[in-house]
Amino acid sequence: MSRNPYGNLSTIEYIGARPQKPKKNFFGGWVILVIAAAMALIFGRPLLSSVKAEQVTASVEAADEIIASLNRSNAAGDKIASAALTFTKNDKDALKVNSTSEMIIKCYRVAIGLDIKELLHEDMTQAFSEYPQLWYEREANKEVDSTRVPNILRFFHRSGEDFQHSEMQIGDVMFWTLPDGNAHAGIVVPGPGQHNNEKWIVHNWQGSVLWENKLKDFTMVSGCYRFGH
Questions:
Q1: How many other CB atoms are there within 10 angstroms of residue 76's CB atom?
Q2: C-alpha span between 127 and 154 (Å, rounded)
Q3: What is the pLDDT of residues 173-206, one digit of tens each?
Q4: Distance (Å, rounded) from C-alpha 28 to C-alpha 51?
Q5: Residue 173 forms part of a structural domain
Q6: Does 195 reside within a domain?
């Protein structure tokens, strides 16, 4: 065993005042956070509800204003954009749609009297092999084919005018490929209020028709088409 160099000393004695435990502060940081959260819950919810209500009202008013302006024009593109904006109002008098393809078909039918469903079926009947072969179909099916965005994209590619992103106009139909590989589409419309000079889109997203500044968010552009105007 090694020898203790300090002889019989085996402990160290502390000489001085006895250390005192720090006193707990009842109003610590966590208490302040709890109080702040409670105040935000009590006073913030009515304010948030009020802000949301104002935003919805403003959105409907902005849509009505843009629609009225577009309806003064005889341009087919403006009429298509006006029809698209009608879907965003979410009132009982607005047209209802459940998908992107249905929105495009109804916009063309209401705005300029073109039946995309019928025209697409006629073209697929004559040139079925030119359309995407993704659903193991052997022939054109009028009730199903027009519900698929890739088919509408191919119809516009065959029948409409294709434009670069920088050349798009109000009423054009934009197509994108989403990161998950699905096809998506929207109609180019003016922005609301002070954004009137900007180009926004109306599109069906997760079950709702939205009026959004999303042209630059969807980067995988499949085409920008102008058909019927």
A1: 18
A2: 11
A3: 999 999 999 999 999 999 998 898 999 999 999 8
A4: 33
A5: yes
A6: yes
